[in-house]
Amino acid sequence: MKNKNLKNAAFFTFFFLILILASACKEEPSTRYFKAMDTFMILKAYGNKAETALAISENEIKKLEETISVTLDGSDIYEINNSPEKEIFVQKDTLEILNFAKSIFEETDGSLNPALYPVVHEWGFTSGEYKIPSQEKINSLLKNTDFLKIQIDEKACSVKIPDGMKIDLGALGKGFAGDKAAEILRKKGIKSALLDLGGNIQAVGSKPDGSEWKVGVRNPEGGDACARICVKDCAVITSGGYERFFVGEDGKTYIHIFDPKTGRPVENDFESVTIISKSGLYADSLSTALFVAGLEKATEFWRKKQNFDFIIITKGKKIFCTAGIKEKTDFSQEFEVSFVEK
Ligand code: ADP
Ligand code: MG
Fold first, then answer.
1. Chain-centre distance for alpha carbon 189
2. 84 falls in which pLDDT band (50, 70, 90)?
3. 228 Cβ partners below 8 Å, 6+ apart?
4. Are residues 214 and 229 in contact, defined by beta-carbon separation less than 8 angstroms?
5. How far, CA to CA in Å, does 172 sit from each of 29, 57, 139?
6. Count of CB atoms within 10 A of residue 38's CB?
7. What is the pLDDT of residues 113-170, one digit of tens each?
8. What is the atom index within ligand 1 of the atom nearest the CA of 199?
9. What is the pLDDT of residues 36-79, one digit of tens each?
10. Per-residue confidence at 5, pLDDT binned at 50, 70, 90?
11. 3-state SS string for 126-175
12. Nearest residue CA, atom 9 of ligand 1?
């Protein structure tokens, strides 16, 4: 009897030792938390080079912020908007984002428009002093928002905008920052990282065990995610009407995503648009542009391009998403899901 007890004790000790060893081998990620680009960021990476690689990534994001911030005196965008000089020499990053924004402006019939900044500012979204401007004021500000009039000289690395125009890269800068951070990590040999830039997710490789990252899409009403998508090496970026808004004296809700045609916050039945694509810059640009475009035009754009996926959540607990993600996404039972086919 005593012998049997001893045998049992030895077995359990051995079993627990194995458990302790296994959990010790399970690698913990290196993590960095910081504020940048007006939001909170969490960068997580695995591997013995993760610590250094993350520090460099954080630095790069902050450097980019200093380059493209609309409010920081001395940034490229600040100079473009405020300098009396006509031609402003800028960093390569600024040029790349502006060029990209121009192409998306053209391709989405002006739905993404960085030159809308004075309008967004007038409504108080940059200061928090919200107000509903007069139609007259909106109309006069809209006159200077033809983004195609920006002149980008690639050779000279310079930019010119017409008098009265002011630009802001808030709708796509964070996506570009995610791309840069991910690129640094990959170059440093990181095989597994998950970057959260204020809700904009960038996956580098897959999880350390080789399985894909599971990224949740926020439920506009709170609670559990309304969809969870498995991804590796790509960006999952959401624009949500619930992120920033105010209720006007007229009792109506005004969101921070604007229709450049009307100079007013978008009023459709969208709660959010999530874009899944290899490029964060593309995903961030499209999350805003397709929110403005609405379901029909968003679907049309996707059918033409087919180089990204979308998950659109509308009021009334409906989800519309591209058919390609069916197999890799779990949807909350609360939502009615429709798949958009090619
Ligand atoms: P977030 O800033 O929450 O990530 P978005 O990527 O959708 O969300 O960007 C929205 C921001 O971009 C707004 O706060 C506003 O400053 C600016 N913006 C709003 N509407 C447009 C638009 N149609 N085109 C370009 N920029 C816009
Ligand atoms: Mg965006």
1. 24
2. confident
3. 214, 215, 216, 217, 329, 330
4. yes
5. 28, 18, 25
6. 13
7. 999 999 999 999 999 999 999 999 999 999 999 999 999 999 999 999 999 999 999 9
8. 4
9. 999 999 999 999 999 999 999 999 999 999 999 999 999 999 99
10. low
11. CCCCCCCCCHHHHHHHHCCCCHHHCEEECCCCEEECCCCCCCCCCCCHHH
12. 171
**Cα(168) to centroid(ligand 2), Å:** 12
> How far apart, in whole angstroms, are the C-alpha atoms of residue 296 and residue 65?
34
Taking CA 148 as the corner, what is the angle to CA 146 and CA 150, rounded to the nearest 5 degrees?
95
Q: How far is the CA of 286 from the centre of ligand 2 (A)?
A: 6
d(CA 31, CA 51): 8
pLDDT at 245: 97
Measured from the alpha carbon of residue 111, the closest ligand is: 1
The span from the CA of 139 to the CA of 144, in Å, is 10
Cβ of 120 closer than 6 Å to ligand 1, yes or no, is yes
Strands lying side by side in the sheet with 88-89: 88-89, 158-160, 151-153
Query: pLDDT per residue over 185-243, tens digit each?
Result: 999 999 999 999 999 999 999 999 999 999 999 999 999 999 999 999 999 999 999 99
Residue 288 exposed, middle or buried by CB count within 10 Å (0-12, 13-18, 19+): buried
Please tell me whether the overall predicted TM-score, pTM, comes out greater than 0.90 for this model.
Answer: yes
